Amino acid sequence: MRRDQSELSALSRLFSATVFRELAKQGHSQLAGRLLSQSRLPQPMNSSLTLSDVLDQAFQALKVSGCRDEYVYRSALINKIVLGRHSLRTATVLNELRAGRCKVDAAVLNGTSTAYEIKSERDSLGRLADQVENYRNVFASVNILTSSVHLKHVLSTMPEDVGVMVLTDRYTLRTVRTPKNLPERTSPTTILESLRSNEAASVLGELGIRAPSVPNTQLREALREEFSMLDPIAAHGAMVSTLKRTRSQYDLSSFINRLPPSLRAAGLATKLNAQERARIIDTLNAPAATALHWS
């Protein structure tokens, strides 16, 4: 089915953080109801279809090349790499982590750190060089996940140590260039900017250095002085082990596995309490037709 721009926009917004939070906090979403009505998904809906089924159908429509937004790419990354090659029991995914002047789309921490910058066919490449420069100061490996539309430009302009992956028309991930793992390239003071103060103190502790004992108003400057003297490889390794502990998603494994594949990226990016997690699972398993009445 060929869809116009307004229908594609409605489909895309179904996977927004706003809709996901409303479903989790309220068990319904007026916005989701309106978007379902606008998106030309099967109506009247088969009584056997759950909301989860319909959202997966919406995502199938978004996966068509040329229509794919950042969320479609993020979903491929989460399902095919984070949950496909790794596990939340052994790896941690960080969304929107600060790296220098930028925030990384996603970073995976296992034995090392890998940053992923997403550039879909809808995105501009204007900021890419600056983003990559900042990521290389924090993460040992940097990967760009992009479209074939941007591939030639990305390959010709990005440093040789930066990996390049393409989301193909068949919704598979193809590695065009493998990233190099270079923790020695990182900057300890830039790493510090990505950490909370207690995490920075933990990094120092892992390296056998006592955290500064100064008033809170002076703490960040004192931490910066300590980090400026660290070996990059040591600082990076301690950062990885610290963040895997402080931001572990181990307890999310069961919840994420119960979500439909189309919502797993949203589930990992949204902080919910146990009650909200249970509520959204119940809502997703309810008949989809009821959602049309939310609007």
UniProtKB/TrEMBL annotation:
InterPro entries cross-referenced by the UniProt entry: Sce7726-like
NCBIfam families per the UniProt record, alphabetical: sce7726_fam
Protein name, per record: Sce7726 family protein
Species whose genome carries this gene: Oceanitalea stevensii
